[in-house]
Design a protein that fits this description.
single chain; alpha/beta; Urease, subunit C, domain 1; 2 domains; four-stranded parallel sheet; 16 strands; binds zinc ion
Length: 440
């Protein structure tokens, strides 16, 4: 029998492929060649089939797909802890927006996004979605970090430091989309900020442009009760109904938050195939409301998971987010059987990939997919005993136990050492911003 030489083999004590559901493979190896998974086989006969240029023996580890943070504002890492314990309006109007107006620049976004990529890699995220000013800088940070990324370039009806209005944002965003057209890891889509910051004319334009160029759309929607009530008072319509009427909702639309949902809203989501990005920790911290995730999943709606920005979280740890999503989902459903470990793991992996339309590349460990892989070392006191690996991943907060991370076959972290980003420089830049922001 001929032995095939491949780029990489990862021998793991346990593998959670995510697809098929509720599966944990024991003593198996992942075989990777040309950035993709070409086999998943029992370790004991792998040597008869393959020899690898690089091998990793992870015998105390669980190996699983890298996590997908489906909504965030990476550069806001520089505003982590800057304004806490305030009502949403006060938080935004008196603190976050004035700080952004004064400080946000290409340099702020570059250094904030670099800080975020380091934190995300260290806590097991391999793909992130980002909506923020100067998206060119976040795209560049994603490129150099080796992470996979969906850039949702922001669109508002008013000027900001990045541009002077919707035409300018769309033009700059489409140029960025062109720049990354053939990039293996980075996709650029429309990011109309929210129904209350974007007018009908702009949404109508996006509803014809997006299908024409096969781009997705991500929008904050029904984040708070106040948002929905104000819209109904003004126009007689709930925001989701307005976006439906403007033909913005399609199977490539990602609706972020959706803490206010009635049966009509569910019918619209079912009919259009739009996705929900649930950000439980941000919703809790800003007291925005509760997304009824169990009900949505039972209605067949795809729900993915995101951290939102670090200013309202205050971390980008998707393991913490899974834990919170599971507990909150059970409480909201008044059912301890709601949102199983498998379901929240899916929300943090394959559901995010489906929402972004990249499920043929990432979101599960299956033959043919890109090698977006993380390893978690489970040999410590906090993980003993080990009755159920899926339970440990969902409920025991593993962000700090990630030992290795690969994206597209490239090793981004080995034994917690980052290979693509300079953590010393990133920390020093963050310290400088701390001083600048303190001067106000
Ligand atoms: Zn957000």
């Amino acid at each position: 029998m001929t032995i095939q030489t491949v780029d990489l083999i990862i021998h793991a004590k346990w593998i959670i492929p995510v697809v098929p559901k509720n599966t944990v493979l024991t003593d198996c190896s992942l075989v990777i060649n040309d950035n993709r998974i070409i086999a998943i086989k029992p370790t004991n006969n792998i040597e008869q089939l393959f020899s690898a240029i690089t091998e990793h023996d992870l015998k105390e580890h669980v190996v699983m797909p890298g996590l997908i943070n489906a909504h965030g504002h990476a550069a806001m890492n520089l505003l982590r802890g800057y304004a806490d314990d305030l009502a949403l309006d006060t938080w935004l109007n008196d603190h976050i927006w004035p700080a952004e107006a004064k400080h946000v620049s290409a340099e702020f976004v570059k250094q904030g996004a670099e800080l975020a990529t380091a934190e995300m890699i260290r806590s097991g995220t391999t793909t992130f979605s980002d909506m923020y000013f100067f998206p060119e800088e976040t795209a560049a940070a994603a490129h150099s970090s080796g992470m996979r990324c969906q850039i949702t370039f922001p669109i508002f009806d008013f000027p900001c430091a990045w541009g002077n209005g919707p035409d300018d944002y769309i033009s700059k965003g489409l140029t960025l989309r062109d720049d990354y057209r053939n990039h293996e890891r980075i996709n650029v889509i429309f990011g109309p900020h929210a129904p209350y910051t974007v007018g009908d004319d702009t949404f109508v334009r996006l509803s014809s442009l997006a299908p024409e160029i096969q781009s997705g759309i991500q929008v904050h929607l029904h984040e708070t009760k106040g948002e929905v009530e104000a819209a109904v008072k003004e126009s007689g319509k709930r925001p989701i109904q307005r976006l439906y009427d403007l033909q913005v909702l399609t199977p490539t639309t990602q609706c972020v938050h959706m803490t206010q949902i009635n049966d009509d809203d569910i019918a619209i989501l079912q009919q259009t195939g739009a996705h929900i990005i649930h950000c439980p920790e941000s919703n809790l911290k800003l007291a925005s409301g509760f997304c009824p995730v169990d009900k949505l999943l039972k209605a067949g709606i795809n729900v993915a998971l995101g951290t939102d920005g670090a200013a309202s979280n205050n971390n980008l740890d998707m393991f913490g987010e899974m834990h919170t999503a599971a507990l909150l989902g059970k409480a909201v459903a008044e059912d301890a059987a709601a949102l199983s470990a498998q379901q929240v793991i899916e929300m943090a992996t394959i559901n995010g990939a489906i929402a972004m339309g990249i499920e043929s590349d990432t979101g599960s460990l299956e033959v043919g997919k890109c090698a977006d892989i993380i390893a978690i070392k489970l040999d410590d006191i906090e993980h003993a005993p080990l009755h159920d690996v899926l339970s440990h991943v969902a409920y025991t907060h593993n962000g700090h136990r990630i030992s290795h991370s690969w994206v597209n076959g490239q090793l981004l972290m080995q034994e917690r050492q980052l290979t693509t980003v300079n953590t010393k420089e990133i920390a020093s830049n963050a310290k400088e911003w701390q001083e600048r922001l303190a001067q106000n």
